[in-house]
Amino acid sequence: MKVYIGPWRSRWTSCIHDRHMMLKYGLEWNDNQDWEDRAWERAEDTLQWVYNHTINLYLDKCEPKISVKIHKYDTWSMDHTLAPIILPMLKQLKETKHGSPIVIDYDVPEELRSKNAPPVENKYDIDDYHHDRWNWVLDEMIWAFEQKCRDDWESDYYKYEDDPTATFGMKLVWEDREGRKAHQDRMTNGFKLFGKYYESLWD
User: Fold this and answer.
1) Can you list the alpha helix ranges (DSSP code H) found in 53-202?
2) pLDDT digit string (tens) for 125-175?
3) Residue span of the structural domain in which 108 resides
4) Which of the four, 28, 33, 40, 84, has the lowest number of CB atoms within 10 Å?
5) By the 8 A CB rule, do 65 and 6 touch?
6) pLDDT (tens digit, 9 = 90+) per residue, 113-124?
7) Cβ-based neighbours of 101, under 8 Å, separated by 6 or more
8) Could you tell me if 128 and 118 are in contact, meaning their C-beta atoms sit under 8 angstroms apart?
9) One domain, residues 114 and 87
């Protein structure tokens, strides 16, 4: 597999009025502007109009370069092929995200559900556990793909010893079937969450 996805091109934006206001008033500036402030605002609007009717017309039509080559062996075990690609993307998303989508209560543990959070003041406010729910979902996705990248995770739940009398020269001496099932169930749930919240994987 060979994949190249280029970056999106950013539009040109005029910020001369904003910079002027920040330098003059700091973070406390408001809509009360004098003649000089309004002049900078008109200059910013004019410059932005020029950008929008010249360079931004070109940039808006530019799409990122995408080149994807798939080899036949990539789909022999497609779940394993994709896992080491998805995993670092999920980790980076968690580190750099700027917000959290709505997560359904029954997808997270009882203690993170909205009904257990302190009451919100307004209907449009988010509760105290809103971001915690999304972090929990991301952690479960990340854990599931980490396990998928491990070819030998099942070996945590059984042990073999050499035994010349055994059919294949090895004898099973210990096995934790319940532990292995719980491990697989958690992985499966992580992949379900990945599918369910796929369209929420944005920064």
Assistant:
1) 55-61, 78-96, 130-149, 177-196
2) 999 999 999 999 999 999 999 999 998 999 899 888 888 877 778 877 888
3) 77-203
4) 28
5) yes
6) 999 999 988 888
7) 134, 197, 200
8) yes
9) yes
